[in-house]
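tool=predict chain=A
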Amino acid sequence: MPARAPLKCWIRWRSKAAPQPAPQQDVYYQNCTAARAAGVAPIYQGQPGYRSQLDCDHDGVACE
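tool=predict ok
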């Protein structure tokens, strides 16, 4: 059998992870009117801008 030429492996595409959004800066809304004006209401616990003072019934959803 004739010797085979060595296989060359060329990588055409590199899989890249999706670009990550920039780290979220601390967000502060003075009140729910300001949050609604910014178009972010309702704000769920864990989301930027949530704070317990905006959550009247303490159910984890502010400015509902």
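The mean pLDDT is 81. Residues 32-62 form one domain.
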